[in-house]
Amino acid sequence: MNWREIKIPDWVKRWRWLIIVVASMVVLAFAGYFTLLIGGKRIVDERLLVLDEASVIETRNGDELTKLYKENRTVVPIGDIPDHVENAFIAIEDGRFYEHAGVDVIATARALYRDLIAMEKVEGGSTITQQLSKNLFLTHDKTWTRKIKEVMASLYLERNVPKKKILEYYLNTIYFGNGLYGIESASQYFFNKPVSDISLTEGALLAALPKGPNYYDPIDHPERAKGRRDIVISRMLAEGFVTSEEAVQLQRKNLGINHGSPEEKPWLNSYLDYVVTEAKEEYGLSEDELYQGGYRIVVSVDEDIQRISHEVMQIDQYFPGSVEGVQGTFLLMDEETGEILAAQGGRNNERGDLNRLLEKRQPGSVMKPLAVYGPALDLEQYTPYSLLVDQKLSYGDYTPTNYDYKYDDYISIYKSLMLSKNASAVWLLNEIGIDYSKNYLEKLGMDLEDNGLSIALGGLKKGVTPVDLVRSYRTFIHDGEMIEPHSIVEIYDKDGELVHKYEPKPKQIFNPQTAWSITRMLESVVTEGTGRSGAYEKALAGKTGSTQHPYVDKKTKDAWFVGFTPEYVGSVWMGYDQSDEKHYLNDGSASPTKLMKEVLTRVDQVKQLEDSFTQPDGVEDVPPPIDLPIIDDLDGTLSFGSLTLLQAELTWTPARDDRVVYRIYREEEGQDERIGEVEGRGRYTIKRLTVFHDETYYIVPYDPLTDTEGSPSNQVRVEW
């Protein structure tokens, strides 16, 4: 066929320009459509479809303590959202949601017309898909460029994401005011129940809020909220989701708000901050993961003890200082599990404030059991009644002194610890060796750069934390075994999968006999030693500590009490955040000791704590020390015994402690002779005296625990 013979129909010739224009428009339309699709792929960042979700910190019982979030959102699947709730949002926001392909041409054309008339952006014709695109991928400015991008993203989503999934994303991203994102958070906030349980009117109220979350807030503006809710119900009628009769009945109902006033719990602030720190440092969760990842963190807090400790820390009389602003910490751990039950990082901390539980301070004498007496008792040559030198001695440039400047020459380990003697503690550290002591401290988690004898008295360059001390003192109540303090029990991801669980890794530090011996000695610190201040009737063992203020003579910088009951291990620190001539404590370790006892007394009213410690199997008990009496009433009388033999009766007032042995001496030329002894009695009979011969006697009390004698009594002369 010859192409030149083809004839173009006349109608084509007549309409050729129209055909060209229409064809061009079709080509351009297809080109524009594909351009929009390609552009949409570039705009849609699918990573943003992974919605930020609040993490929850809760108790073992499932009680929510707080949420961590950048956007307060709990994501719920579309299957958990009732149909009547979906219908309420579709009716008011996008009646043709299931019909359009992402853009409602009619609504958009109407909006464009009104914008052109006004010469500015005055009306939106956005579909649910467009709103989702704007919320996730774009800014909220009203410009033509943003609108075109919104269309691009919407067309892309509609081609790649199912309608139901788009609706799920939308309902989980809407802002409802009051810091609430997503329908689940809004349902819990306004109705105190999950979205799966809310009624049609409640769903309609939630659908009313996105237009103006603050303006229509049902708590602050209930009349506005009801009016807007009724409009939603009217739209549901127009879309066929409810009947006329149902609409009338629904619009008569009240709002049904069940918000209540959430209980203020300032006493939890420090504990929650501690949990966040632990999640980061121990489990490697980043800030973004914690505040966006939707984790569920189960913690070990005992709310009763946490509240009680906070209340007691508000009592000013326990914090005597030169000026206002004395700070303090309180930490209590379950001795069996290592779970932190209460944590106060300050007297009245807000969230994010300085957590002093993690700050290093000079520990003072609370270091003595850890750095000196515990390591020494692990050696065979030392027992609680081994004698130490208690004298003012110099070790190079270092001369430790007792706090009262009194010295006993020789003193047992038991009494040295009970009375918190400095000179004898340093002498013992010098005997066992600094390296030997530091090896124990390293195993306890305290890797010190210090290398001097001042370690014995807690004179450290950087100090230690309350957590360090609680971790370490736990060894004494638990057979010498250490366990890591922890507040987090379990962590679940947003899908409910267990991702982290605390696994105890016990470490043996001291032998069980050493641990029990220290426990017994620390009991005496509380009942007879430096920890007598305050009142607590149940079992308690512990050690006080204080540090000399660097600028004010005879004033205290840091004051401590660290100790344990059969149930708990705890610490209290007091001091100022700054150290200068104007900031010092007017009391030493008595104040933290009183505070600890007050907290335990209140806890006992709730928990019924134990009256005494239970001696572990396989260890020997440690008897309390013997105080040798001063005898100044020795008397002697003559009498006839059997067979008319002459005898002398020596009498004196014995000590209440019937363990005291009384040695009877007769004065002799050269060296006096010990002629006998009695235990626990104030009478001794000397038989067969020599007639017409005067004899002089005296008594010396003897301590069988330390193998030492006390001061001689007055002398008595027995003569015929």
Automatic annotation (TrEMBL):
Which InterPro entries does the entry link to? Answer: Beta-lactam/transpept-like (IPR012338), Glyco_trans_51 (IPR001264), Glycosyltr_51/Transpeptidase (IPR050396), Lysozyme-like_dom_sf (IPR023346), PBP_transglycosylase (IPR036950), PCN-bd_Tpept (IPR001460)
Decide whether keyword Nuclease is in the record: no
User: GO BP, one example?
Assistant: cell wall organization
Positions of the Penicillin-binding protein transpeptidase domain: 328-600
State the source organism's domain of life.
Answer: Bacteria
**NCBIfam families listed in its UniProt record:** PBP_1a_fam
- Give the family this protein belongs to, as stated in its UniProt record: In the N-terminal section; belongs to the glycosyltransferase 51 family.
Listed name of the protein:
Penicillin-binding protein
Q: Which species is the source of this protein?
A: Pontibacillus chungwhensis BH030062
